[in-house]
Design a protein that fits this description.
Blueprint: H1 2-33, H2 38-172, H3 179-192
Helix pairs in contact: 1-2
Length: about 190
Amino acid sequence: MRILLAALRLLVVSVILIGGLHLISGSVWAADEGGSTWRSAYDEVMLWLNFGILAFLLVKYGRAPLIGFLKSEAQRTAEDIERAEESKRRTDETVQEMISAAENRRERLLALKQRLIQEGERKYREIIESAQRDSRILLERTQVDIDHQISEAQQRLKAELIDRAVEAALERLPGMITADDQKALVETFIQEA
């Protein structure tokens, strides 16, 4: 308020000073022209008198409306600034919320990534362990099958050897061995086998 009044006073004083300088310079120029008449001096005085009246009326009656206008403009500008600051504050809050939400999402993504990596490693270990178990079981089955096949092969070999031995004995000994001897030999052989 004080600043506005001081500015208004400074404006009025500067206008009066400029007008006075103009009046002085106008009189000097009129003297330089040579034949100045009383009419030019009268016009100059009336010009300044009218200017003074106008300045007085503006200061007397225009001061309050001008100050009111300036105050209302200052108040409106202050309200605009306050609204802009409030809008900026809300925008800053929104930005902060968005930043914290983005940070939370980033942290959740990192945690999810870590969980997925751990889950993948766990599945990898399970697959390896399962493959090792399956390979052990397969090796054991294969070993059992091999042992069984070896046992069967041994049994077949024994049976073939027995059959050949019996055939060879039957071919060579038919005349030497009696039926009772044959029967005793077969029973002994079966008991031993």
